[in-house]
Specification:
CATH superfamily of the largest domain: ATP synthase, F1 complex, gamma subunit
Strand content: 5-15%
Largest sheet: 5 strands, mixed
Distance between the termini: 33 Å
Order of helices and strands: HHEHEHEHEEH
Helix content: 55-70%
CATH class of the largest domain: Alpha Beta
Radius of gyration: 28 Å
Number of strands: 5
Structural class: alpha/beta
Strand order of the largest sheet: 3-2-1-4-5
Length: 285
């Protein structure tokens, strides 16, 4: 049976942990509000820009220069680039675990393809750099603060690889923010850009369609990457807030159980001492 000192030490340790989880929950709650606002504001713009661009590309697809544009031209996916947007820190429930499982499944489903990984976040970097996979690049320390500069650098890298023929398709894997309690693993093909099917609108182009698309397509890729960064940051805050709330509740349950156990041990100790005193007094009589 543990001593009272050991039990008190364990209770004190759990209380210290509970204070940490409470603080982390409060920080994530405050930051989630701002991250959620950025996501909600970015979604309509990104969706509408994508629809317009695909519609314009479809309308201009009659021109040979447009059909042969490297960012629009579909090709057999022999070399695939997978961008994984993970977190730099843990303590966020299944945020990183589910993401890594989805990436492993993506790789397993394409045994005949050459897949290169672009890793964002320490968790994905630490996991895949120890595995026999090809890593084309990594970026850490900005999972919660990644913005336009980081998205621009990555988008330029992806478009240049497609243009140079180093890769045939680019997919991006991230956690999409649905609600405080729900984050959805999302995988999206970014390149080549899918041309909108169905009825086409009749556009009048003031400049050659190829020149216009050459300027718009990289911007579209940038928007897709930036949206993934914002979604992942909001989802990470939500996952960490939920995980820390559950950890705080569990710590409170552990403290209550340990306190009850400590009282029982103390009562048993007092009872034993009383019995010893009474037995000693009886022996002297």
């Amino acid at each position: 049976m543990p001593s009272l000192i050991d039990i008190r030490r364990r209770i004190r340790s759990v209380k210290n942990t509970q204070q940490i989880t409470k603080a982390m929950k409060m920080v994530s709650t405050a930051r989630l509000r701002r991250a959620q606002e950025r996501v909600i504001n970015a979604r309509p713009f990104s969706r509408m820009a994508g629809e317009i661009l695909r519609s314009v590309a479809a309308a201009a697809s009659g021109a040979e220069s447009v059909r042969e544009h490297p960012l629009l031209q579909p090709r057999e996916e022999n070399n695939v680039q997978l961008v994984i947007v993970s977190a730099d820190r843990g303590l966020a429930g299944g945020f990183n675990t589910n993401l890594i499982k989805a990436a492993q499944q993506f790789i397993a489903e394409r045994p005949d393809q050459k897949i290169e990984l672009e890793l964002l976040g320490r968790k994905a970097r630490d996991f895949f750099t120890r595995r026999p996979v090809q890593v084309s690049g990594e970026l850490t320390g900005v999972s919660l603060t990644a913005g336009l500069p980081e998205a621009t650098a990555l988008a330029e890298k992806l478009t240049s690889r497609i243009t140079a023929g180093e890769t045939d398709a680019v997919y991006i894997l991230y956690n999409e923010f649905k609600s405080i309690l729900t984050q959805k693993i999302t995988i999206r093909r970014v390149l080549p850009v899918e041309v909108q099917a169905g009825p086409q609108r009749d556009y009048i182009f003031e400049q050659p369609p190829a020149e216009m698309l050459a300027r718009l397509l990289p911007k579209y890729v940038l928007l897709q990457v930036l949206e993934a960064f914002l979604e992942s940051a909001a989802a990470e805050h939500a996952a960490r807030m939920t995980a820390m709330d559950a950890a705080t509740t569990n710590a409170n349950d552990v403290i209550n159980k340990l306190t009850l156990y400590m009282n029982r041990v103390r009562q048993a100790s007092i009872t034993r001492e009383i019995i010893e005193v009474v037995s000693g007094a009886s022996a002297l009589e």
